Amino acid sequence: MQSSLSKSLYLGLAVLSLGAVATVSTTASAASKAKVVSTKTLSTDGTKRNVQSNGKNALYSKPGTVKGAKKVASAKTMKKLGTSKKSADYFRAYSQQVTNKGTVYYKIVSMDGKYRGYVYGGKKEGTFAGGIKKASTMKSTTLPANQTVYFSKPGKSNVTWSAPKYTQYKASKSVKDTTAYADDVLKVTSAAKKTREGSLYYYVTDAAHPEVNGWIYAKSVTSTKPTTDTYNEKTDIKVNFVSATGKAVKSTTLSNLTDANGKASAAKGTDVSADVAKTATDAWGKSLLSGTGYTYTAADSMNKTAVASAKTGETLTLVVNQNANADTKIQFYALSTDQTQGAAKLTAYKSGTATATTVGFPTVSAAFTGANGATFTGSDLQTYLTANGLTTLNTPSYKDANGKQVYTKYTFDNAVAGTFSTTKNAQAFYKATVVDGASPVDTPTTTTTNSASYFA
Asked: Alpha carbon 229 to chain centroid distance?
């Protein structure tokens, strides 16, 4: 009896002991799970946050060592995405989380939006390491010999984009249909290839319609001017916009007009004034004159008289007025380390401690200006910068990470075409070089008193 009791007591204690061990083990396991101690939304330029997987780490719904984290994509899948030949498989990093273990995780999303989650990013905040590394989605290349081109097949395919598809997250179409711009002259200002696919793209600008400006697949443009003149003197009228001084500003055609009874015109010389008056509104003129710096007013007495006598087969001359000049501020940028656009903004140094992006601007005599709404080319802006001593900019001296005195010298690289405006800035890009020693703008040989007026 006593022996039986002893055995029962012994077994009970053993079970209790095992239970206690299990409890301690579970508690220890839970305690070992990491916790997020800081979360930060990444705010640097998006082009600097393009990354690719190196296949070392999986993608999780939460930082991988945090309780409840579920695998979104295995390390094997991430390795496949990292070696992919498709730009869609690049990622954009947009959030950073740090755990109490000192590990950094980045929340990333693939360029096509298919994968989204957290990946291990190393031990140093702000540095892409661990399972990801920085990615250069495009590489600059030489401009074509012929830089004046046209849409080869105007329509809804192969239109212009803010960036070639999937080279930047949420790259969007500049226009969805190029049919209306079939006759427009396009200027190639940049050329680049997709790093993974190797396909060539051009950045084109459209002086007549700046909204068309953007990146386009190189095979979607041609140096041969399209023949699209289908003028019919029985149904159409040619329109010339002319300034008050007699300068020819723009031409267009009004087609398939109707007579006073609303019937399709069938003969040259048909009175189509009523139909023309309905079409030739201020909004119509604004669209056609976009980028010229001129304005059409339908209520102008000369224009009303001209429209009232409109007949098919004739040429209608409408008067336009040049807009007042718009002093356009210039935003200066430093090219990123891979020499692509979309890097840090340069600002005017005012006082206090200088940094690598605070520059001393020289005094300039006049603003970069032109008729409000008129387009300018990159060469126009470069000419202004050269004339005003703005092709080389320097920061005052500052201390680098090792405490050494240095300054950054910025050398002009390129300027972007745009539109004269008091609300939109012109853009100029510079290459940066860090130089040892004292800066030439440490002494007050330059001033920034006019930078608020002329520079963004």
From this structure: 35
- ∠ CA 438-411-143, rounded to 5°: 160
C-alpha pair distances (Å), 246 with each of 250, 291, 320: 12, 19, 10
Each of the 456 residues of the chain gets a pLDDT tens digit; together they read 444 434 443 434 343 344 443 333 333 344 467 899 999 999 888 889 999 999 999 999 999 999 999 999 999 999 999 999 999 999 999 999 999 999 999 999 999 999 999 999 999 999 999 999 999 999 999 999 899 999 998 888 889 999 999 999 999 999 989 988 888 999 999 999 999 999 999 999 998 899 899 999 999 999 988 766 678 999 999 999 999 999 999 999 999 999 999 999 999 999 999 999 999 999 999 999 998 999 999 999 999 999 999 999 999 999 999 999 999 999 999 986 544 444 689 999 988 889 999 999 988 889 999 999 999 888 899 999 999 999 999 999 999 888 999 999 999 988 888 999 999 999 999 999 999 999 999 875 444 445 557 887
Task: Specify the pairing of strand 71-73 against strand 91-99.
Answer: unpaired
- For residue 275, the Cα-to-chain-centroid distance in whole angstroms is 41
**Under a CB-based contact definition with an 8 Å cutoff, are residues 160 and 214 in contact?**
yes
Q: Any idea what DSSP says for residue 270?
A: -
**How far is the C-alpha of 349 from the C-alpha of 328, rounded, in Å?**
20
Single-letter code of the amino acid located at 160: T
Task: Name the strand (E) or helix (H) holding 266.
Answer: none
Q: What are phi and psi of 15, to 5 degrees?
A: -65, -45
Q: Is the pTM of this model over 0.70?
A: no
Nearest residue to 252 (alpha-carbon basis) of 273, 269, 231, 267:
231
Locate 441 and state its tokens.
């703008």
DSSP 417: -
Sign for the CA dihedral angle at 423, 429, 435, 439 comes to negative
